[in-house]
Amino acid sequence: MNHSIYSADRSTHLKIVVVALVAGIAVAGLGITARTGSDEGLTQAARVIKADKPVVITSSNASLVR
């Protein structure tokens, strides 16, 4: 028995790909069910804010003369 991936035959490579694919699907499915299954009223609604007059915001304390 050779334990190298380089000298493995075609069926061994196929088994590795299938196991990796199944594991990836399982992890993705688990993540989707965990995300949608734990909805305990923590959803947020978007608020619409209409534009008003332009406002200038600066980080300095100097007064602005126009």
Give the key terms.
66 residues; mainly alpha; 0% strand; transmembrane; transmembrane helix; membrane
Account of the 3D structure:
The protein is an all-alpha fold and 66 residues long. Helices cover 42% and strands 0% of the residues. It has one helix and no strands. The radius of gyration is 29 Å and the shape is elongated. The termini are far apart. Keywords: Membrane, Transmembrane, Transmembrane helix.
Q: Give the termini separation.
A: 85 Å
Helix content: 40-55%
Total beta strand runs: 0
Order of helices and strands: H
- What's the pLDDT, averaged over the residues? 80
Low-pLDDT parts are none
Largest sheet: none
Class by helix and strand content? Answer: mainly alpha
Shape: elongated
Count of helices?
1
Strand content: under 5%
Radius of gyration: 29 Å
